[in-house]
Amino acid sequence: MSEKEGSTVEVIxxxxxxxxxxxxxxxxxxxxxxxxxxxxxxxxDQETELLQIQAHKGIPPFLIPKLSTIPIGKxxxxxxxxxxxxxxxxxxxxxxxxxxxxxxxxxxVEGSIAVPMLLDGKLYGTLGIAKPVPYDxxxxxxxxxLEIGEAMSKALLA
Length: 158
Prior knowledge:
Strand order of the largest sheet: 3-2-1-6-5-4
Distance between the termini: 28 Å
Number of helices: 5
Number of strands: 6
Helix content: 25-40%
């Protein structure tokens, strides 16, 4: 992890200890920390079992309605939630696996990752970030994102 990345992760974790968490700021710091341009933060509605948008950045306005509510198992965020593990694409634009929803390509991002927000194995939401270029996230970056997701889950319970 770069020094910049390390210090930004510390800022993110300290933001999550605030009395009132500014989720938009947290997401923007995560995006900056991992040198990304786009991101989404969804919380799981425990009653409906649907992922609901909490914060976003870099998403074209016409796409917001399509990603405001996501069923478990649909798209990258939904699959990350279902599998309770990171789901990644080196280039979302050329992906033909069916994991990315057709509308996702309209974001114009390429290297992307969605991680579940887990605490003690329980799902609280998902965090997704992306770059405008093809990119494979490192194992360390995946671990750091999962750690941030766990800290976000704890902050939701506080």
